[in-house]
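Subject: Sanity check before I submit

Could someone independently write out the structure tokens for this chain? I want to compare against mine line by line before I put it in a report. The sequence has 272 residues.
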Amino acid sequence: MPEWPEMEHYRSQLSTLLGGIKISTAVVNREGSINEPPDTFANALANRTILFVERRGKHLLFHLDDGNRLLLHLMLGGWIYYGEQAPMEDSHYQVIIRLADGNSLYFGGLRLGYLHRITAKLAHDQMKQLGPEPFDSRLTLEAFTKRLKSKRGKLKTTLTDQRFIAGIGNCYSDEICFEAKLHPAIAVSELDAEATERLYGAIKKVLLDAKEAGGYMEYPLTAADHLTGGYNSRCLVYDREGETCGVCGNAIKHETLSGRKMFYCPHCQGSE
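---
Independent answer below. Compare away.
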């Protein structure tokens, strides 16, 4: 599932490509991916202009000139492609937005994900349920420590709770725990001040490194996009079960925690 680095990578590219571009029409191949009848959706988008693209947590919001938003959540398996022609036939994409400049936005893999046309108020109401952004200037070490002290449960489940911090999921929670030298199943109540500071720094380092490397997703946004997916080979523990830890040489372990995959090095990260 795309997380903060992937969605921020998408946002930064799409902001350049889409700002001020008019929509010609929309093609809906799967009605379950949108929140209204296909004809209503297509007619409402025709001749609308995309003002800018915003990201909130794992969501993208396309701001339209009529005050409404297109709210995108890719969930598990979703991706976006932008260009004159997509790599696959149009029928492979659940929603296609045709643009007046001859390009199109192709939304694929939206079996669980969605692209909803909603009002600005509804978008605000939905997004305010999310926790702070990882790089929000107000999320100081002091503020982070205070939020962490209010939580109960395991570290990984806390990091992936979108009400705690928005944008972290399965992959980067494991990478963050490894960077911080903390077992992902440790109880957050056991973290002292020094461990909390390591965790705070690890969140920022891992997410920023991953974003600059293009995240771990394999689908490029455009034909000229050679950066997307660059972080996949740099993951140190996630999806590396049985492989050798690059720090200590021990084998990476895989377990399940609250229904989520959990990858860690038992030597570098100790016990829970």
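---
OP: Matches mine. For the report I'm noting this point. The chain has seven helices and ten strands.
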